[in-house]
Structure formats: C-alpha cells, structure tokens
Amino acid sequence: MRAFNRFHRRLGVDRDDADVRSTVYIAIGAGVLLALVKSLAAGMTDSASMLAEAVHSWVGTLTDGFLVAAYLAARRPPDETHVLGYGRESYVWSLFGSVAMFTVGAEVGIWRGIRQLGAADMDTEYLIGYVVLAGSFVWQAWSFAQAVSFVRKRAAELDHGLFAHVFRTSDAQLRTVVTGDFIALVGIVVAAAGMALHQFTGNVAWDAAGSFIVGLLMGAAGLFLINTNRRFLAGATLTPGQRATAIQALYALPEVKRVTYLYAEFIGPQRIVVAARVELRGELSQADLARTLRRLEQTIMEHKHIGRVTLSLAAPEEPDAH
Length: 322
Prior knowledge:
Its main location: membrane. The chain crosses the membrane at residues 24-43, 55-74, 95-114, 126-145, 177-198, 204-226. The structure is a single chain. The protein has 322 residues and is mainly α. It has two domains: 4-235, Alpha-lytic protease prodomain-like (Up-down Bundle), CATH 1.20.1510; 240-313, Alpha-Beta Plaits (2-Layer Sandwich). Helices cover 67% and strands 10% of the residues. It is built from ten helices and three strands; from the N terminus they run αααααααααββαβ. It has helices spanning 4-8, 17-45, 48-74, 89-117, 127-157, 162-168, 172-201, 205-235, 240-251, 286-300, and strands at 256-268, 271-280, 306-313. Strands 1-2-3 form a three-stranded mixed sheet. α2 (17-45) runs antiparallel to α5, α4 runs antiparallel to α8 (205-235) and α5 (127-157) packs antiparallel against α7 (172-201). The radius of gyration is 25 Å and the shape is elongated.
C-alpha cells in the first residue's frame, strides 16, 4: 500500500507507459525493501509479532501488484468485445489481493501466535525490532496521510463523509489502500506492544498475542474487502440517494418531461452504465425523437462517471420513476 499517490493518481489515462512502469517499479521496490528489512528483524529477534508484521508487508507488496494490475485493466478503453470497458476486471484483481490478505496474512499470523505460546521463554534483544517498527510506522503514517488526503478530496466531490466514502465507493483499489494502510498502522503498534510486554514481563504469551492479533486484523480486513469486491462483481446498483440524484439530473434536461424507468449499475471504479425510459416534450416525428434521444445520450455521456447510457421512449401510461 506504499506511495499511494503513485498508484492512485499517477496511473491515470493521461500517463504514458514509460511513466507508469517507472512508478510501479519504484513503489513495489520500496515495498519489497521494507518487507526484507522486517524479515531480517524477525529472524534476529525471533519475535512472532515481528514475523507477523514481516508477513503483513510481503502480503501488502503482493497486493500492490494486484492493485497495479487492477488499475491497468480499468484504464483500458472500450472495444468491440467489451463495449462497457474493462472496469469490472479491476474488481477481480482487487479480489485476488483481498484473498491473499485473508489467507496468507491471517493464517501465518494466527498460526505463528499459537505456536509461540508453546515456546520456552528466552531473553531476546528487541532493539533492532523496535527500530524497524518505528521506521515502518513513520513511513506507513505518511502513506496513510496521503491516502486520507486523497479520499477527503474525492468524498467532497460527491458530498460524502470521509468514512462513508471509503465504505461506499465503487473504487475498490481506493478502499483497499486505505484499509491496508490503516491495518498496517494498527498492526505495527500491536506488534511493538507485544514485543515490549514480552520483554518487560518475560512472558512469551504477550509476543504470541501480538502475532495473533495482527493475524486477526488481516483476516477481518481481508473478509471485508472480499465481500465488497464480490458485491461489485455481482453488479452493484446505485443507493436510493444516488438514484434520486440521477433521476433529478434527467429531469434537469430541457427536453425531458418525465422519467418512468431508471437502471444504473457500476461497471468499474466511479463508472456506471445507465438505462432509462423518458417522455420528451413537444410533438416530434419519429426521426426527430430518435435524433433527440441520441443527442441526449451524448450529452449525458460527457459526464466523467458515465460509461454508457441508453435512452428509450416511455409509454404514456407508465408511472413516474421514484
């Protein structure tokens, strides 16, 4: 989840492939370096909590790779075989990262914690572990601050609260980064506390508990992200509030007299497909009706969140949509 801006801002459609590649290499390289340092510290301290944090970093780096694949998939333009674009593919790659977080991270953290409970107490020098965790905390806190700043701007655009946007956004990568960075910060604090309590009391159960809690945190976060990606892959629709806003936007078009049907489904990060039935103002010929509908479709598709729209004529007896 490192270097949030590199993944979320710079992997846009306005970047050339060379810039994207260099950005990806730097971000993933930094993640691998941090995971290696934590792994070395885990080997030197023989701390279960430190090992859980190292595994967490390796899983985070793997997830970063999936997120890059998700963004590269989502930015591909529509073609003849995928007229709605490739946005939904981003949920598949995000799902892979969520599964990795749940299975690998939770399993290793919990398993190592249980195993450590049966280990004999030993005098362990944790100084190197504290130094590594402190450096990791500073780096992770910077990354999390960047993520929160970006989310706050996105939330303001849609008139959402910060946390509401994280839970409701169709941008699975955004949610994964924020969730992963938050869990990483909490995990570092838990790991440091487990190591410190072990060192202070001489009871290895504290170190084991730290590893166990880190594993539980990763498992819970993984399950949350798995369920969210599943929902968008299955075809998530607009919330009642979003639907009401969409209907009002159609009524704001001068040519539209009534809206009798509206269906909108997310087809990728911040992208929806819309189908609606409308009654037009005035007495128009069949040809003029067709031209007006096509012109309205083009107007609506100028909105950055609309991937495709299809309008059809409503029958006079159809009730208004709500």
